[in-house]
């Protein structure tokens, strides 16, 4: 049985939604032609919305909502006229296991690559936060030493630091989580070699 006999192909206009944030996550998609933008929120590029990534032919998306059974965490919109998508529902995956296990491997590789990219982005963000926090501490020390602010000014400075994540204790907790995550990732990578 050909794959086209048990999968649905949809064709979209430019700027047509595939799904919106909050929609049920009951299937995933493979891009056969064209491209799709993944946006934070429901506006698809309108005011206050952010393009998270642009996906092209051969890419899969929507798997997180499907596998987790949660509503969509972002919105997806066709970026080009004539974008074609293959709809992959649970029954399609079951058929892939039976008749095309190589498709399952392809999907798993895609998900694994996406997870590795997100992990790298997370590690980069942690390093940036760490660097900014260190700079903040240096500036505070200079300010304390050179300007010698009054107790009232120190209280105001502390208030500007905002929520707990920017306090020394919050920073220390974040740094410990980052170091733990980095160590476990390093250990896993060395076990795979």
Explain what the structure shows.
- By secondary structure, this protein is an alpha+beta fold.
- It has two domains: 3-99, Jelly Rolls (Sandwich), CATH 2.60.120.10; 113-185.
- The chain is built from five helices and eight strands, in the order ββββββαββαααα.
The counted number of beta strands is 8
Major sheet details: 4 strands, antiparallel
The helix-strand sequence is EEEEEEHEEHHHH
Radius of gyration: 23 Å
Q: What is the terminal separation in angstroms?
A: 40 Å
Summarize the structure.
The protein has 193 residues and is of the alpha+beta class. The protein has helices spanning 63-68, 90-99, 101-146, 151-160, 168-192, and strands at 8-12, 17-19, 28-33, 36-40, 50-55, 60-61, 75-78, 83-88.
Give a quick set of tags describing it:
4-stranded antiparallel beta sheet, single chain, Jelly Rolls, elongated, 193 residues, alpha+beta
Blueprint (SSEs and pairs):
Blueprint: E1 8-12, E2 17-19, E3 28-33, E4 36-40, E5 50-55, E6 60-61, H1 63-68, E7 75-78, E8 83-88, H2 90-99, H3 101-146, H4 151-160, H5 168-192
Antiparallel strand pairs: 1-8, 2-7, 3-6, 3-8, 4-5, 4-7
Helix pairs in contact: 2-3, 3-5
